[in-house]
Amino acid sequence: MARYTGPKRRLSRREGLPLTSKDIKYMEKKGTIPPGQHGVRMRRRVSEYGTQLREKQKAKRLYGILEKQFKNYYEKASKIKGSTGLSLLQLLETRLDNVVYRLGFTKSRYEARQFVSHGHIQLDNQKVTIPSAKVCIGQTIALSEKMRDNTQVKKTLEGLEDLPEWLERKATVGKILRIPNRDEMEQSIDEQMIVEYYSR
Predict the structure, then answer these.
(1) How far apart are CA 149 and CA 90, in angstroms?
(2) Domain assignment of residue 116, yes or no
(3) pTM above 0.90?
(4) Domain range spanning residue 123?
(5) What are the pLDDT digits (tens) for 6-33?
(6) CB neighbours of 50 closer than 8 A, spacing ≥ 6?
(7) Domain count, the chain
(8) In CATH, what number is assigned to the domain containing residue 142?
(9) How does pLDDT run across 51-94, given as a tens digit for each residue?
(10) Under DSSP, is residue 31 helix (H, G, I), strand (E, B) or coil?
(11) Residues pairing with 140 in the sheet
(12) How far is 131 from 172, CA to CA, in rounded Å?
């Protein structure tokens, strides 16, 4: 299973938003200075193509997936009736690793991916180890018995603020109530730019 294993803070600086909870304070301090020794001075004029590319890269890195898989999601979204951009985001939001993150079981999508890969997540009472597994309406997502008493997990659950309205959670068991609306998904992504990038 392919995944990015390099420095994540560098990606956060490149995209101008924290990709992990650890990067939040760092980004507040450093701002949106790009990575590299010339980061402050290299302020080039960005073309329309460059803007579209940045949006695509941002979405990829935010959800922790690589190019081929992201393109497959786009092609799948383009075959669904309605807005391609909205369908793309809905496909990304209903990935198992993202749902685990949204339920507040982990602090980041990277951590959620690891939880799934290590077999700590159950989908409808069955152990699933595929982070990209699609979660459908009515399916339940639960932590394995081994992880329910984990100190870090308890701390994360206590620190959770508001749960998205399309999800429901009781203790360590969550459920998808419906497909999320646009205002309930990632606000930092301009999905229309991604559609324009692939429509060239």
Answers:
(1) 32
(2) yes
(3) no
(4) 95-178
(5) 666 666 666 666 666 666 566 656 666 6
(6) none
(7) 1
(8) 3.10.290.10
(9) 888 889 889 888 889 899 999 999 999 999 989 999 999 999 99
(10) coil
(11) 175
(12) 18
